[in-house]
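ok, trying the design again with the full structure, not the truncated one.
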């Protein structure tokens, strides 16, 4: 390769790698697999070695990616958080073993551990108490996510026992169990939020949430793998981890002490298939020299320890032919490209289709029709195309071009700045959007209208009987009975079920409307604050964003929805059909002096009952919580306050406010 070509390739690689770093660490939306990322980084390293004149301090090859975000305070790591050198090959692992034997003359023990695929965390304990938890950040400085980490049950807040160093750092991986991940994504899809790509991204994203209560609801777990400090209990890694398990940390059962590299290979091959039975994703095995003095002798390179290496499993992959790409339009108008493949067996099931995510992904892969493509099933449920085998490329095959008009209604597609997806803006007349909204409206968690499935909705739509959700309430027996497959009995059932749905509570009606970004939880929150639909229709962006948990994106979507004359007309018709558009039994919000505050009530009160205080908190924009945490704003304290709450509040320095002070705050004399 000529020098000028090398320079051009190096520049391209650096740009691409930085882009992938940003997607992985900041956006939590990686486009490529770790394997492909490693290939890019490897190529860059090789070129920089061959052409040292182009080495630059700012090259992504010189640093570990950074996850620092501006919302958190940053702290320096007492011990830098390095990464591990990676390999996918048995041969390189043998070379690692030989290098170690060259430096160390005594016998060597290795510790094998699963390589957990989550977000790394470094937690400092002082005098037996959790002091601070920091993300990896750029390896030297990370984000302080202590409040979020405190919600994770497998991380002890206080530890007791013998031989605990007065100060130590413990590192591990924050994980989201696959089951929790699947449930979370189902909810996100329903709420029109982008689903997380895999449990790793979901764990990393959750760790960076600003509200620890949401973190707590996501059941994160933490597997620890590294103990650091001046006065560690043992002179070897294995015993230190087992000791930490005794203090209450979670250490993987799979950890194993090996006497030579052959035993390491046995561990690797056993866990290659067995890892699928674990509740968490693992992507390889970490092999570490056990003795701390041997570790010290081996030392570090600029980026990683010489005494450890990660052997990574390749995600299961198959090669097959790309037959065509179809474009699907969802309920919100988002267009998703789907690859239709020649059926191929992958991890025990036949794969015929794979997701292509969006236009960027198609461009990145530079896909052509009839290409032989690599399909991978990683942590994700839906297989994806991760690359093209260019040796099979026939130059006559057409490049896949993202469509510019909606395949369902012919409207020109749009793509908003900063969003990855193309949208069909024909909200009112695009058939899958109309049908999707109706399907959402009747679904169990919305209006719960049984007897109406996807097929019946198709039938009603194709016969011009239903064009929007309010049409459902005008349906009559004589219109339904003649339709094919619908007898008198099912027609009667459908009508009965539609009639019954008028009793659905207001918050579920709000959810059923299918406003973008308004999922079940948001619908409940806004129904509590805007007690009638007219209050909500008249709400301005600012009033909406003042509500805890409602950000600018949700607020803008609500305002846009109610600015549409057709939506207002539809609501008018739903109102006259008797649908509940208010929470009449509830009192209205009276003030906002407690906006954004989390308040715990404890003790016996004289002026008002506990229930009344709860109402007052809500009516003044606050939230009532039952347990004291770092997130509690204050405690409304009556007589005989609970002892454990008092201790916790003292420990966290949370203010306690009396009944009379509280009533003053909310302006109630
Ligand atoms: S040890 C200096 N052990 O992999 C050694 N890391 O690529 C520090 N990881 O940032 C790492 N499982 O987030 C170690 N059993 C394990 C691990 C593990 C997952 C992650 C960790 C680290 C990354 C290195």
């Amino acid at each position: 390769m000529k020098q000028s070509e090398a320079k051009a390739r190096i520049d391209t690689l650096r740009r691409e790698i930085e882009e992938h770093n940003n997607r992985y660490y900041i956006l939590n939306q990686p486009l490529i697999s770790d394997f492909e990322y490693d290939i890019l980084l490897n190529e860059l390293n090789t070129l920089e070695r061959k052409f040292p004149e182009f080495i630059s301090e700012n090259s992504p090859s010189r640093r570990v990616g950074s996850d620092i975000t501006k919302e958190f305070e940053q702290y320096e790591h007492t011990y830098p958080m390095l990464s591990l050198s990676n390999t996918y090959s048995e041969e390189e692992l043998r070379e690692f073993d030989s290098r170690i034997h060259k430096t160390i003359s005594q016998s060597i023990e290795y510790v094998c551990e699963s390589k957990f695929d989550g977000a790394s965390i470094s937690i400092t304990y002082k005098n037996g108490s959790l002091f601070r938890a920091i993300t990896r950040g750029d390896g030297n400085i990370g984000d302080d996510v202590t409040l979020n980490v405190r919600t994770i049950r497998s991380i002890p807040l206080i530890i007791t026992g013998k031989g605990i160093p007065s100060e130590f750092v413990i590192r591990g991986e924050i994980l989201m169990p696959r089951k929790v991940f699947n449930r979370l994504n189902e909810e996100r899809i329903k709420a029109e939020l982008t689903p997380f790509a895999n449990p790793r991204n979901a764990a990393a994203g959750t760790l960076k949430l600003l509200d620890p209560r949401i973190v707590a609801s996501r059941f994160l777990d933490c597997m620890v793998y590294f103990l650091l400090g001046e006065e560690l209990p043992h002179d070897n890694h294995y015993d230190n981890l087992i000791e930490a398990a005794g203090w209450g940390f979670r250490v993987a059962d799979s950890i194993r002490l090996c006497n030579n590299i052959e035993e390491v290979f046995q561990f690797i091959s056993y866990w290659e298939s067995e890892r699928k039975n674990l509740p968490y994703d693992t992507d390889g095995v970490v092999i570490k020299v056990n003795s701390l003095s041997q570790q010290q002798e081996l030392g570090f390179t600029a980026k990683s320890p010489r005494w450890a290496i990660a052997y990574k499993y390749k995600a299961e992959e198959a090669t097959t032919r790309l037959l065509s790409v179809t474009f699907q339009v969802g309920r919100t108008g988002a267009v998703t490209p789907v690859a239709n493949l020649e059926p191929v067996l992958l991890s025990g099931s036949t794969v015929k289709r794979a997701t292509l995510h969006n236009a960027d992904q198609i461009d990145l892969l530079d896909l052509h029709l009839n290409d032989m493509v690599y399909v991978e099933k990683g942590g994700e449920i839906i297989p994806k195309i991760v690359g093209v085998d260019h040796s099979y490329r026939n130059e006559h095959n057409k490049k896949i071009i993202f469509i510019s008009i909606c395949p369902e209604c012919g409207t020109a597609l749009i793509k908003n700045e900063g969003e990855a997806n193309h949208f069909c803006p024909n909200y009112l007349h695009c058939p899958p959007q109309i049908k999707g909204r109706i399907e959402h409206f009747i679904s169990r968690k919305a209006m719960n209208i049984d007897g109406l499935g996807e097929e019946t909705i198709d039938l009603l739509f194709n016969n011009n009987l239903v064009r929007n959700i309010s049409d459902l309430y005008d349906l009559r027996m004589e219109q339904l009975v003649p339709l094919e497959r619908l007898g008198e009995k099912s027609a009667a059932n459908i009508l009965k079920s539609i009639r019954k749905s008028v009793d659905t509570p207001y918050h579920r009606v709000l959810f059923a409307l299918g406003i973008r970004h308004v999922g079940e939880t948001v619908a409940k929150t806004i129904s509590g604050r805007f007690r009638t639909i007219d209050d909500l229709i008249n709400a301005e962006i600012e009033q909406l964003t003042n509500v805890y948990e409602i950000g600018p994106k949700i607020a803008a979507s609500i305002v846009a929805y109610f600015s549409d004359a057709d939506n207002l007309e539809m609501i008018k018709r739903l109102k006259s059909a008797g649908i509940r558009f208010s929470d009449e039994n509830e009192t209205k919000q009276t003030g906002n002096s407690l906006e954004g505050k989390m308040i715990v009530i404890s003790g016996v009160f004289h002026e008002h009952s506990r229930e009344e205080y709860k109402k007052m908190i809500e009516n003044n924009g606050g939230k009532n919580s039952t347990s004291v945490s770092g997130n509690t704003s204050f405690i409304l304290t009556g007589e005989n306050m609970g002892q454990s709450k008092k201790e916790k509040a003292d420990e966290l320095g949370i203010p306690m406010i009396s009944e009379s002070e509280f009533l003053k705050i909310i302006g109630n004399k």
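Keeping the full-length input from now on. The mean pLDDT is 89.
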